[in-house]
Specification:
CATH architecture of the largest domain: Alpha-Beta Barrel
Distance between the termini: 66 Å
Number of helices: 12
CATH class of the largest domain: Alpha Beta
Number of strands: 30
Structural class: alpha+beta
Oligomer: single chain
Strand content: 25-35%
Number of domains: 3
CATH topology of the largest domain: TIM Barrel
Strand order of the largest sheet: 21-20-19-4-3-2-1-22
Radius of gyration: 26 Å
């Protein structure tokens, strides 16, 4: 497959992402899933025997009784290649086959989940990705009676995703643009990209050498990339033409196959797209000679190389008499995965229209899924894996509280806690990855805080540890079966908690004028989150992300009213109450308070306190 699919239907286009409408095949109204996934515990070494051992522990530990229901096979369960064009199981690892395993789990009252990838290969390398096989694979998943499917994003052929060719950046970025030319109906004008064009969105840059580059969508999974605000950019030209009709449009461009400068161009007027394809490559001339129309030096992008610009062939566009806005852009970094996940969803619904199958979009925030994944998925990963140090049979794997990249509990939390407005029953849920409860590097205090965070964030509650290491009644068991906290995650109102307050730690300079909208990666702080509940109460969590014990913290409920008032059931009753009952959801202690302040004397390093706050009559 040389090029991405042709996109004709506007519902798959970037312009549709903000309309708030899910695709017809998407079933909204689902609360976050609860279950277990094999990856953090076993990596690619999972087997049917290990899976059934986890299922037995589900029953023994009472996990099913408190809402956990999905048992999900991650990477490593298929053969390395397709058999007669179809997916096939590793028969030594899974002697009963996937349908046989599904039958066993369903007989236990549990649900069966599987894994695939929108690329050509799975992340573990098996050449069985669903790209180009969506219809065939949907038939297999129907036959195997699945209830859940996690779909990853490795080896994706139309983006420089994990394990894909770096040259695939040619699909993700527009060429550098130096000028455009418009002619027709007695009109003929050349316009400079930097002087006559204007940049909209965020990310595109003006080079000192007089051209525009980085037209496209920002790469999302890095720890410093905020999920808020515009994530894509366009170069637009406002032109006034004498009459309705067809005009000829050209761009003076330079291509590459690297982050920030590619080969794929989209030209549109309003919502109409007139060109959506690769442009011919331009040569890179290192000896200063060029037969092209213009050559400049761009030391920022390509040191010691001359960038050659050439005119494109004419592109026919339709304009109206008067003012028009011509858009030069490339939104394929989002449109391509959206289209691929949509294709998979549509094939699944066609194959199994009566089955309620959960689709977990796992593209790790790379292509800004918060803007489009709600249209196709029940949840969407927001960042890289929470840990890359997974376990194996008998070994728990590792996860740190703080690392130099994204593999930690706070890194996931820091991004998810400002993404509440992207989530909801009508959309789906931000997914900060599977929980790392019980892994090496996560102590008892961190385990409690981690679980409370995921509950408040309405994240999927997916366990990732080997459940054979858990004993009924031990601390891990009490954490993962805390029904008061689970009730927050599964509350039928379906509203993710909002951060309402940020308190700097000792010696910290952290500030947040908008605590709900300020993306913060400095963990030397305490966050306060509030979550409306269906019974008219709210949950309030104090999370100490720092390495020191906090001092006293006081939350005034007027702050909650300012940021969350319109989402609280029975708002007037709640905020006019003279007193409140607070229940500590860890200790179960209840205290009646008068007035509108909730006070915490101190919180241990990496610790949390979570209350349910109910107005008294």
């Amino acid at each position: 497959m040389l090029n991405p699919p042709v996109i004709k239907d506007k519902k798959y286009r970037y312009d549709s992402f903000s309309d708030g409408k899910c695709l017809p095949q998407k079933r909204a109204g689902r609360l976050p899933v609860m279950g277990w996934n094999s990856w953090n515990a076993f990596g690619s070494e999972n087997t049917e025997a290990l899976t059934m051992a986890q299922a037995q522990k589900f029953i023994e530990l009472g996990l099913k009784d408190v809402g956990y229901s999905y048992i999900v096979l991650d990477d490593g369960c298929y053969r390395q290649e397709r058999v007669d064009g179809k997916l096939a199981c590793e028969t030594i690892k899974f002697p009963s086959g996937f349908k046989g395993l599904a039958d066993k789990l369903h007989a236990m009252g549990l649900k069966f989940g599987m894994y695939n990838d929108i690329g050509t290969n799975l992340c573990g390398g098996a050449a069985v990705g669903t790209c180009g096989f969506e219809e065939v694979d949907a038939a297999s998943y129907k036959e195997w009676d699945i209830d859940f499917i996690k779909v990853d994003n490795c080896y994706y052929p139309w983006d420089n995703a994990t394990f894909a060719s770096a040259e695939n950046a040619r699909f993700s970025w527009a060429p550098a643009i130096k000028a455009v030319r418009l002619s027709g109906a007695g009109f003929d004008k050349e316009l400079s990209a930097t002087e006559d064009g204007r940049l909209v969105g965020d990310g595109a840059e003006v080079s000192p050498d007089g051209f525009v580059t980085r037209i496209g969508t920002k790469d999302g999974p890095g720890p410093d990339c905020s999920p808020l605000g515009p994530e894509s950019s366009e170069l637009v030209f406002d032109v006034n033409v004498p009459s309705d009709g067809e005009y000829l449009f050209k761009v003076l461009y330079s291509t590459a196959k690297q982050e920030g400068r590619g080969e794929w161009l989209q030209v549109g007027v309003g919502s109409e797209i007139f060109y959506d394809d690769l442009l011919p490559e331009t040569s890179q001339n290192n000896n200063g000679e060029s037969s092209a129309e213009d050559t400049v030096n761009d030391n920022k992008e390509q040191p010691d190389a001359n960038i050659t610009f050439i005119w494109s062939d004419e592109i026919k566009i339709t304009l109206k008499a008067g003012e028009n806005t011509i858009r030069v852009m490339n939104h394929r970094r989002q449109e391509n995965p959206h289209h691929s996940y949509a294709r998979f969803l549509e094939c699944m619904r066609a194959a199994a229209p009566d089955r309620d199958i959960v689709l977990s979009v796992c593209e790790w925030g790379k292509n800004q899924p918060q803007n489009w994944a709600y249209r196709v998925g029940d949840s969407w990963r927001i960042l890289n894996d929470i840990t890359f140090s997974v376990g194996s049979d008998g070994k728990p794997g590792n996860c740190g509280w703080v690392t130099d990249y994204t593999t930690s509990i706070p890194a996931q939390y820091n991004k998810a806690c400002v993404m509440d407005e992207f989530a909801g029953l009508d959309k789906g849920w931000n997914d900060p990855d599977m929980m790392v409860l019980g892994m090496n590097g996560v102590d008892d205090t961190m385990n409690r805080t981690h679980f409370a965070m995921w509950c408040m964030l309405n994240a999927p509650l997916v366990l990732g540890l080997d459940l054979r290491t858990v004993k009924k009644g031990d601390l891990l068991h009490r954490i993962m079966t805390n029904t008061d906290l689970i009730a927050l995650n599964q509350d039928p109102l379906g509203i993710q908690a909002k951060r309402v307050m940020v308190v700097p730690g000792k010696g910290s300079s952290v500030t947040a004028d908008r605590p709900d909208r300020t993306y913060i990666t400095d963990n030397n702080r305490v966050d306060v989150l509030a979550k409306p509940l269906a019974d008219g109460s709210i949950a309030v969590s104090f999370f100490n992300l720092s390495d020191d014990t906090s001092g006293e913290i006081v939350l005034c409920l007027t702050v909650v009213e300012k940021l969350l008032g319109n989402k609280i059931a029975g708002r007037v009753k709640f905020f006019s109450a003279a007193s409140y009952e607070t229940k500590d959801l860890w200790t179960k202690e209840t205290v009646k308070i008068r007035g509108g302040n909730i006070s915490i004397k101190e919180i241990p390093a990496h610790g949390d306190v979570t209350f349910k706050v109910t107005p008294c009559n």
